[in-house]
Amino acid sequence: MKLTLIAGARPNFMKIAPIIRELEKRKEEGLDINYRLVHTGQHYDPALSASFFSDLGIPEPGINLEAGSGSHAEQTAQIMLGIEKDLLNHTPDILVVVGDVNSTLACSIVAKKLGILVAHVEGGIRSGDLGMPEEINRKVTDSISDFFFTTTTSAGENLVAEGVDPSKIFLVGNTMIDTLVFQQEHFNAPEFRNAKRDFLLLTLHRPTNVDDPMKLEKLLNEIVRGAGEVPLVFPVHPRTKKSLDRIKDLPDIEFLNPLGYNQFLYLVKNSLGVVTDSGGIQEETTYLGVPCLTLRSTTERPETVEIGTNVLVGQEWDRVQEYVRTMAKGNWKQGRIPKHWDGKTAERVIEKIVSILK
User: Fold this and answer.
1) 2-174+341-357 and 186-328 in the same fold
2) Which of 40, 53, 82, 127 has its C-alpha lying 20 to 30 A from 324's C-alpha?
3) At what angle do helices 10-28 and 345-357 cross, to 10 degrees?
4) What is the 3-state secondary structure (H, E, C) of 38-50?
5) Domain definitions of the chain by residue range
6) DSSP E strands, the chain
7) Mind telling me the catalytic residues?
8) If we measure between CA atoms, which residue out of 184, 174, 168, 102 comes closest to residue 352?
9) Count of other CB atoms within 10 angstroms of residue 71
10) What CATH superfamily classification does 186-328 receive?
11) CATH number of 2-174+341-357
């Protein structure tokens, strides 16, 4: 049995790492199964060093396609050209894609046209917002995939509503939570001045929130007013930094350089709460029981709102200050952890893949 695993951006490696560790375990137990990890190079990230992969407990990729940046069309085209050559030279029995980045879409299309089975880990999640490139990637990938490994029952329901055969859908849980569980004992504190005090954590990178410096400045001021005396710690995404550099009078926030996974998750776990526009952080805060305010109108992870610790701003942007104030005071809702978010998702994924290929 031969698998090709696709990762294109840093979060993809977090999702694929537990699957690789489980494959290595099954190989040691005598299972005839081999895999090839392909890094599409969609994101060039200096943090993707040898230590990054060793920290995750996985080998470095078999190849880096070095697709690089560019428009969505340029990037997708480069990935398709690169993965076609690799799949022709190393044809697997099944191609496994994770998440919803351009690499997910591009590699699925090429594999399908080459007659290779496609399995989508994290299939079926939907925000309902086609203004998000990720939503387009999800829907197109799911329209041509052969098997779907879902994080929640609602993701499976989305797929069934779109005409997918229920026998092809497997509720397995969340491999991002597998990584969190695996790494938790390695969380370590970055250097920041509020290390011995209560603090709120802030992350922003969505174009609609950060590309306009005036809008970003107004949003930051609202958050600061809501936080009151509680310090705000903000690891800054490169995209956000471009706008921050154009703001003359920055509010009283402790800005940090981008952090590695273990340092960032230390901040998440030890904060009073997180204000974010990220997707994955909604999941991590729900698992850790940390309050989360998501500065978006939609979410593809409704379970984090329905049973988790996440609150979605939705259309209530005028209440950002009020929400942050509630978080700073510790008056947040209690959450629960969704089914199968237990650190054993990869075991269920590989068990199903082995069954499929046999």
Assistant:
1) yes
2) 127
3) 60
4) EECCCCCCCCCCH
5) 2-174+341-357, 186-328
6) 2-7, 34-39, 63-64, 94-98, 117-121, 147-150, 169-171, 200-203, 232-235, 254-256, 273-276, 292-294, 310-312
7) 205
8) 168
9) 8
10) Glycogen Phosphorylase B; (3.40.50.2000)
11) 3.40.50.2000
- 8 Å CB contact between 229 and 154: no
Q: Provide the residue count of the chain.
A: 358
